[in-house]
Design a protein that fits this description.
single chain, two-stranded antiparallel sheet
């Protein structure tokens, strides 16, 4: 994917006519649930690499929440019903049922700090369908990349996308922007 103009970039962050590009505003403290022990190093390494590329610090714990990047792997959405206080965690009643009815293979939701920066990201991944045959390294990188910014649609890791993430984490830019003119500032940084 080449990212050369404002329209292409704005489209990545526009959902239902509303532009939102937010990045993490605090150190990321990731935790993974539901993976086999032998798979954990692949996912941890991918997350660390994506965070390092963006210049975003990683932490063992978040002082307020413990973990703030939570990834849940399941073979069936109904398994999430057994997670204590899951509805409270997600803020959405019967989310597993809705995802099952939609035939979704993954779902991501963000929480935000007062300044609009990402405070937490919860990613749900159903490995019981098409993702069962996904290459672990590619899946790990994809999930980490998609948690870095508030993308309005699924994105695939690429050199162009890596450049966009780096640009969005430029300290001169706001941690969150709701005006699509922000995309022009991202284009300017990609041109450098």
């Amino acid at each position: 994917m080449g990212l050369k103009d404002k329209g292409q970039i704005a489209a990545l962050f526009t959902r239902d006519g509303q532009y939102l590009c937010a990045r993490w505003g605090r150190a990321v403290a990731p935790v993974i649930f539901g993976l086999a022990e032998e798979s954990l190093p692949v996912f941890r390494a991918a997350t660390r690499a994506v965070l390092a590329h963006a210049g975003q610090p990683i932490a063992e714990t978040d002082p307020e929440m413990g973990a703030n990047m939570l990834t849940f792997f399941t073979r069936d959405w109904d398994e999430l019903r057994g997670v204590p206080d899951f509805d409270r965690l997600t803020g959405q009643a019967d989310l597993p049922g809705r995802l099952k009815r939609q035939g979704a293979d993954q779902y991501r939701l963000f929480r935000f700090d007062a300044d609009g920066a990402i405070r937490a990201c919860i990613t749900l991944v159903n490995m019981g369908g098409p993702l069962a045959s996904a290459h672990p390294g590619q899946l790990a990188e994809t999930l980490a990349v998609r948690a870095m910014l508030t993308f309005a649609r699924d994105v695939t890791p690429s050199a162009a996308l890596a450049g966009l993430i780096r640009a969005a984490y430029d300290p001169a830019l706001p941690a969150a922007a709701r005006d699509a003119s922000h995309a022009l500032r991202l284009v300017a940084r990609l041109s450098c």
